[in-house]
Amino acid sequence: QKDPDYLKLWLDSFVSSYEQFLDVDFEKLPTRVDDIPPGISLLPDNILQVLRLQLLQCVQKMSDGLEEQQQALSLLLVKFFIILCRNLANVEEIGMCSYINHVITMTTLYIQQLKSKTKEKELADQTPIEEFVRHALAFCESLYDPYRNWRQRIAGRFLSTVEKSRQKYKPASLTVEFVPFFYQCFQESEHLKESLKCCLLHLFGAIVAGGQRNALQAVSPATMEVLMRVLADCDNWDDRNPEEVSRKAELTLKCLTEVVHILLTSSSDQRQVETSTILENYFKLLNSDHSALPNPRRCRQWESRFIALQIQMLNTITAMLDCTDRPVLQAIFLNSNCFEHLIRLLQNCKVFQGYLDRLAVSTIQALTAVMHNSPAAKEVFKERIGYAHIYEVLKSLGQPSRELLEELMNMAVEGDHMAVGILGISNVQPLLLLIQWLPELESHDLQIFISNWLRRICCINRQSRATCVNANMVIRIIETLKSHSALHCTCAENLIALLGSLGSQSMGSEELLQLIRLLRTEEPKRAHPYVVPVMRAMLAMARKQGMASALQYFNLYHSMAGIAVPSIHKWPGSAFSFNAWLCLDQDRVDPSTTSKSGKRKQLY
């Protein structure tokens, strides 16, 4: 305390001994080290009080400008605190002291200097200031995300609830200074380096991922305003590094995803912001009116950046919905009119020729995510939008790519369309859309590819055939076959073979009549090219394949399906019996049913 030079020497020696714990790069996973820094009880007596006074002196001298020696001391102090916090048993006590508030005060002043654009700043070396800011943010991370949950999330590793529950030490309580500090850093920050903005976003993500209590304190109207403003700024790059700006957008979207997941696990009295409010602002930004922008900004380069941001935002919707409380979040998305917003995006994107297909693919992915495994969401989409409307919107974008058509196939199976035999039909409507689109496709290769896949997926088992028949797919196929001049012969044969398979399941008199009418030609002596394949299909319908089966049956496919009987007091006697044959059809393998927590149907 009486000899500052000796104190600095001791700090230097301590930091040098544990330098491997100074992993201040948020982009890297923490390095595994066998040794840990000492506990506070093993440090010299009153060392924390002495360091607090040293830090306070640095804060008090900040207004006049710190000398080089004092700058070096303040950085050394922050490094010391980071190292101490890597012994997780120290985190709570360090967090209760006033160090963090002093560090935030100094960081705020330094960031103000870095945000200003003056000749003095351009001439001066900003490296020491930037180094202090990066270490200060890493110190905050050490306090509020001691297990580095955020870094693991960024690296693609997701911690389960069980893994999180095993984390012995809790993060320090978030200082009330954080939200004003975070908000202030992004005010008039056009001259602040993008890399430093990324560090600030990393810190916010770390606080949210570190623990629910701190997360709910950090997720406020002010911080959400900052995230939305940062996201909106990502389409205006000027002379900034495109990679850094793109990374900033990616981090902001990951922060928003983490925020949504945290809000889902909280009660309404704990939340400062509702998920619906975040989604409302999110969709407003996604569908922002680019036509209102001045012409200089609406250049080709700007369009590509704006589309890139929109695609990132659409992909984030899929990431948001990848959570344990998916049905709850799907309901919030539906109440936020997400379907209308996504369709409007497709309609508005016609302005950006050349980027339409990429945007359309991402939009279909987002729609699939919202409807995934939710019969209610599918019904809402049919009522509010309708597949006829989305077909017209997609068709207006021009000839589709294979990627777009494959995404519609993925929507139908709610998974990878190539997993035929593993995944069955979850949503039949996209299949009807694809059948209707076939004559419009100029590429015969695409016609053959789509029709061949349709034939396989629709005929995979009794359940798939029944689903397609109930959706009136037979009539849709006949309507498509009427445009035989636009269809490749192989495509037409695939559709007729599919027709035969569905007809063997069920075919009405009206459908049969339409099929026979299809074979009429204007020249009586000339046979229709479909005569032979249609006759084969009709023979296949008439032919009995395998064991005899009932033509009428109960379908107990869905998880909630069952047969309800009257309550006991309504039975006409002392007992009730029900006799039926049971058909165990080849079923699709759902990955979720093979897990430990999966469910399976049982017979009693």
UniProtKB/TrEMBL annotation:
MF terms in GO: protein kinase binding
Pfam family for this entry, one: Neurobeachin
Protein keywords: WD repeat
Example of a GO biological process term: intracellular protein localization
GO annotations of cellular component type: cytosol; membrane
Entry keyword Transferase: no
InterPro entries in UniProt: ARM-like, ARM-type_fold, BEACH_Domain, Neurobeachin_a-sol
Stretches assigned to the Neurobeachin alpha-solenoid region domain: 298-541
Signal sequence range: none
Protein name: Neurobeachin-like 1
Species for this entry: Nestor notabilis
Phylogenetic lineage: Eukaryota, Metazoa, Chordata, Craniata, Vertebrata
